[in-house]
Amino acid sequence: MKKLNSKSEDELKLIERAKAGDDRAFDRLAQRYRKSVYYLIFRMVRNAEDAEDLTQDTFVKSYGSITKFDPRFAFSTWLFRIATNNCIDFLRKRRMQMLSINETLNQDEGGGLYLQLVDPELIPYEELQKQQRHRYLMLAIEQLPERYQKLVHLRYFMELSYDEIAEQLALPLGTVKAQLHRSRELLNQTLAEVMKSLY
User: How many folded domains does the chain comprise?
Assistant: First the structure.
C-alpha cells in the first residue's frame, strides 16, 4: 500500500470530514487551493472579476459534489477539472452571446432600419479550441499516478520553482527534476491515448 506523507493524510482527513458535512473542514480545503484555482481560471478567462466569480462557483460546485470525490485520485486534479469545465461553459456561453435586434426602427422617410448588434467580446473559435485542448490535458493528468499529478500541478499550474517543489514535498532536488521529467513523458503518452480514444 502506498505510504502517504503527513500533508496527504491531513488532506484525506479533511475530505472525509467534509463528506460528513463538516463545513469548516471544507473551508480549510478551499483555503489551500483558492489561489491556484483562481490563477488557473484567470489564465483562461483573462478577466479578474469573471475569474473571482468562477472561482467562487467552482468551490460551491465542489462542495455540493464532495461526496462523489474518489480518494484514489488527487483532490487538486478533481478540483481543477471542475474549474476548467466551469470556464469552458462560461466561454462558450459568452461566445454565443449575440444581441440581435430584429426590429424595425421608423425613419422620417417611412422606411425601416434593421439592426443586428454583435457583442464585441465574442471569443474566437480558436479560443474555444484552445479550451477544448485544455480539457483533454486535464483528462490526461487525471490518469497519471498521484505523485506525478501533484508534481505537474505544482510546477505548471501553481508555477513553483524546482527548489520550492522540493521544499514543499520534502524531496531531494534531483528527485524532483527526475520525476518531473518522467511525468512529462507519461503525460505526453497519456494525452496521445486520450486523444485517440476521443476520435
Answer: 1
